Structure formats: structure tokens, C-alpha cells
From TrEMBL:
Domain Azaphilone pigments biosynthesis cluster protein L N-terminal: residue ranges: 2-210
Pfam families, per database record: PigL_N (PF17111)
Region of interest (Disordered), ranges: 374-441
Domain of life: Eukaryota
Name recorded for this polypeptide: Azaphilone pigments biosynthesis cluster protein L N-terminal domain-containing protein
InterPro entries: PigL_N (IPR031348)
Signal sequence extent: 1-18
Length: 441
């Protein structure tokens, strides 16, 4: 008899449980020789899920300073779903004579009312949620490329959309069961209808909160400002700053309201499930109702994981891509510990760059140094242009540019053999760059 696993189990135990359950289901599917397209797709998804669960198990075993507790519901449901689907395969196989060589009844398999492809999408949701949780944790400790961040953003958006679709499907299935229960029951019909009406009202209120929160996000993304940086608010622009602070407070209040509504919705669902169980006699219907109730909680937990990962990505990570030509100064620094991903790219021997984690004082000093270097170079060039006698370098040989070079690039002069300025290491970050000048023709 399989061991009982519940939410009270530790995260590592839940991770191992889901991992072993997925492996067992893969082996069961592989034991049948008949593999239609849907079954092959399911097998590929299971193998991908197994690898993700393996990575999670290894991470949880080796890490103590990362909180993955939000994955408890998804891991438990993932493990149970794999085991229950394996049992459905064996039941269907036994009804067909138990012959794994000639088994052809894959199309008859159902899980929570869905076919094999629906079950594959269910597993894909678990897998993607775990990937997002792992990636969110790694971003807090390491750096990735801009391309990887873009792919991560796309993944969060795609998984969130899929989860919303999955939640609507669960709601529809629950409504069908509740509607059947209301029709069949007698004395509890009035109470059941009231609970159902309140559930629908709560759902509409949640949708209002979500739409208003999205609208606030759109406003915050495009503030009116004279700054050349999109989304930048001038610290001296008091009206804009007060408005954005007020909008943020409104969004925080909406989040609290939505959380209370979610709790209320959960209580309503529990009451409806309890009433439906009392009016339902079929063991199969009871099992489906229990699974749908668990999946309702799990899908919302997965959605919260995606939402928090998206918030972390927006608030704590900046993506910067500087590009300049000629006499340019480029800064890509973080003074508040915010993670930076990006590049400084510049063309021209006078390009000056700095990037990394620095204190405010260090950034101000480097900026003054850059200004001083620019002023000295400008003064030197102006002084050189006033005289008609070309300068003679240390080697004693006068270097005169040919006429073709002068026509194309203008006046030129030889730099000193080495001009190097080291950027100091701040107490809040790492060494961030090196300023250098070298002769270039």
C-alpha cells in the first residue's frame, strides 16, 4: 500500500513524492506497445516534468535559504494526479483483458472529465509553475542574459493565461455538479441557490479588482514626464509623484481586497462541496468533486506563484542596453541593490563606461571625474588647434596624417602611451569596470 502524503509533509518529501509518481507513470505508459499521437505527447510531457522535478528535488536538498513552500499544493496535486491517472490506465486495461500488447482503449481514458490531452495540459501547468519558481529563486542569486529574461517574461505570461483558462474550466465543471445537486436536492435547495449566487457575485468582484489593478499598471507604465527615460518620474515633479504614490496605495488596497474575496470564495466553495457530497451517492462523482476542489486550490496557488515572480521581475530587476557613438559617457549602475541585466556598448575612443553596483557617492565621484576628463580633452584639442606647428611625440618623429585620412576623419593627434583609470570597488557591490584609452586611427 502506498504511503499517505499530505500538505503537512515537508517540501522535500512532497518533491520526492511527485518525482517518484511521475517516474512510475512514465514506466506504466512505456509498458504498453500501442502509443497513439496523444500518448506519445503525454510521454514527452511526463519526461520533461520528471526532469524538472529532479532539478527541484536536488535544489531543495542542497538549499536552505530559499523558500519554496508555495509549491506545496502543486507538488501534492502533481503526485496525486500521476498516481490517479496510472490507476485509471490500469482499470481501463483490465476491462480490455489486461493485454498490454493489444491495448487500444486510450481514447476512453478520462481524468476529471478530460481526455489524455487534457491531462497532459494539466501536467504542463505543474511543470511550468515549478520552472518559474526555480527561475525566480535563481534570479535572486545569479545573472542571466537579456534574451533569457525576455523568454522568462514570456513564460510567466503564457503560464498565467493557461492557468486562467484552467480555472475557468474547473469553475464550469463545479457549476455543473452544483447545478445537478440543486436540482436533485429538496430541503437544501434554497440555501444552495443562495450560496451559488454569492459565489457568482464574489467572482464578479474579483474580476473588477483585477481589471482595475491592470488599468493602474497601464497608467504607471506611461507617466507623463519631460524625462527622456520611459517610466521615469522626476523627483522634483511633486504632482506626478503624489499621483503615482496614490495609485500604488490604491493597487495595494485592491490586492488586500482581492485576497479577502479569494478567502470568501474558498469558504463558499467548501460549503457547496459539502452540500453536494451529502446529495451525491456515486463514488466516482465524489472522487471527481474532491479532485476538482483540490485542483481549484492548486491552480490559484500556481497563479500566485506566477504573479509574485512577475512582481519580483518588475520591481527588482532592471534591463538596460546602452549604445552610444563618439564622445559618450555611459552609466549602468545600481545604487539600491536592484539586479542589473544589460550591456554598455559604445563606439569611439572617447567613450567612457561604468556599470555594476555602486553607492551614490561613488557614482557622483565617477561622474565628476568623467566631466573633468572630458573638459581636459576638449581644452587640449582646442589648444592644439590654435597652433600651426604639429606636436612632436616622445619618439622624436613627427607623425603627419596623409591628406586622405584628414579629409575623411579630420584633425588627429597621438595619445599618450597609456591612460588608465581604475573604477573603485564599492562596499555595496563588485568591481564594475575599467576606463582606458588607447591610440586608434
Amino acid at each position: 500500500m502506498a504511503e499517505l502524503i499530505g500538505l503537512s509533509s515537508g517540501l522535500l518529501t512532497l518533491s520526492i513524492f511527485a518525482f517518484k509518481s511521475s517516474i512510475a507513470l512514465v514506466k506504466t505508459v512505456q509498458s504498453f506497445q500501442s502509443h497513439p499521437k496523444q500518448v506519445r505527447d503525454l510521454k514527452e510531457e511526463l519526461e520533461a516534468l520528471t526532469e524538472v522535478l529532479r532539478s527541484l528535488t536536488e535544489t531543495v536538498s542542497a538549499t536552505t535559504d530559499v523558500d519554496f513552500s508555495a509549491l506545496d499544493h502543486p507538488l501534492l496535486r502533481c503526485g496525486n494526479a500521476c498516481r490517479e491517472f496510472e490507476q485509471e490506465i490500469m482499470k481501463c486495461s483490465s476491462r480490455s483483458g489486461g493485454n498490454r500488447t493489444s491495448f487500444r482503449d486510450w481514447a476512453k481514458l478520462k481524468y476529471m472529465g478530460d481526455d489524455i490531452d487534457g491531462f497532459r495540459r494539466l501536467l504542463a501547468g505543474y511543470k511550468s509553475t515549478i520552472i518559474i519558481a526555480l527561475t525566480d529563486a535563481s534570479l535572486r542569486k545569479s545573472s542571466v542574459t537579456t534574451e533569457s529574461l525576455d523568454a522568462y517574461r514570456d513564460l510567466i505570461e503564457t503560464v498565467t493565461d493557461d492557468l486562467e483558462t484552467h480555472l475557468r474550466s474547473i469553475d464550469e465543471k463545479l457549476e455543473t455538479i452544483f447545478g445537478h445537486t440543486v436540482t436533485e436536492s429538496g430541503s437544501d435547495e434554497t440555501e444552495l441557490r443562495r450560496i451559488k449566487e454569492e459565489q457568482m457575485s464574489t467572482q464578479k468582484c474579483l474580476q473588477i479588482c483585477a481589471r482595475l489593478s491592470d488599468h493602474i499598471d497601464q497608467i504607471q507604465l506611461t507617466p507623463e514626464s519631460d524625462s527622456s527615460s520611459p517610466g521615469h518620474i522626476d523627483p522634483g515633479a511633486v504632482p506626478e509623484r503624489l499621483t503615482m504614490d496614490g495609485l500604488q496605495e490604491c493597487k495595494n488596497s485592491l490586492a488586500l481586497t482581492a485576497a479577502k474575496l479569494e478567502d470568501h470564495m474558498k469558504n463558499l466553495i467548501d460549503r457547496l462541496v459539502a452540500k453536494s457530497k451529502a446529495a451525491t451517492t456515486s463514488e466516482e462523482d465524489l472522487a471527481d468533486l474532491a479532485r476538482l476542489r483540490e485542483e481549484w486550490d492548486t491552480a490559484r496557488q500556481c497563479r500566485d506563484i506566477c504573479s509574485k515572480a512577475d512582481i519580483h521581475l518588475k520591481k527588482n530587476i532592471s534591463t538596460i542596453d546602452n549604445y552610444a557613438t563618439g564622445d559618450a559617457v555611459q552609466f549602468m549602475v545600481s545604487t539600491d541593490g536592484k539586479t542589473l541585466h544589460g550591456t554598455n556598448r559604445g563606439l569611439g575612443w572617447r567613450t567612457r563606461q561604468v556599470g555594476g553596483h555602486l553607492s551614490d557617492a561613488t557614482v557622483q565621484k565617477i561622474s565628476r571625474d568623467f566631466s573633468s576628463i572630458s573638459f581636459q580633452n576638449t581644452g587640449s584639442e582646442s589648444s592644439s588647434s590654435r597652433g600651426n606647428t604639429p606636436s612632436v611625440p616622445d619618439d622624436g618623429i613627427e607623425h603627419k596624417p596623409d591628406s586622405q585620412y584628414r579629409e575623411r576623419y579630420g584633425r588627429s593627434y597621438k595619445l599618450t602611451s597609456s591612460t588608465t583609470a581604475e573604477i573603485p570597488i564599492s562596499s555595496t557591490g563588485s568591481a564594475v569596470g575599467r576606463l582606458s584609452s588607447s591610440p586608434k586611427r
